[in-house]
Amino acid sequence: xxxxxIGYWEGLNPKSQEWEVIRSVVSDRSYIxxxxxxxxxxxxxxxxxxxxxxxxxxxxxxxxxxxxxxxxFTLTDMVGVNNHNWLTQAEVNMCLGIWxxxxxxxxxxxxxxxxxxxxxxxxxxxxxxxxGFKNV
Length: 136
Prior knowledge:
Layout lengths: L2 E10 L6 E6 L6 H8 L7 H5 L18 H9 L3 E8 H14 L6 H7 L11 E9 L1
Antiparallel strand pairs: 1-2, 1-4, 3-4
């Protein structure tokens, strides 16, 4: 059985102060990456995170209370999406730092090229990734 990541990059609109969808999360099916960002499919030593900038593990947070309606609908109404979580842009960058330490250089571009969002012309005061995992 395989696992896919389902979710969105969201930006905080400075005018409305509401989170809105920037684009879908796109990622290759990398179980090491899923383990880093969501604590699924791959166990990691807690010290790997604590020694790389985290004060606690960024897993099993659930959905943010102020999640956008589109994200909430997708992640709660789609059958089988579980392990809901979210990461700030800074936390994603820290997770990428862990990824770079674990994965050989020739295999790194697949995640980096697909995980960082394209913001377009809109400016956001904050950006986060909200996601869950679905068995397929």
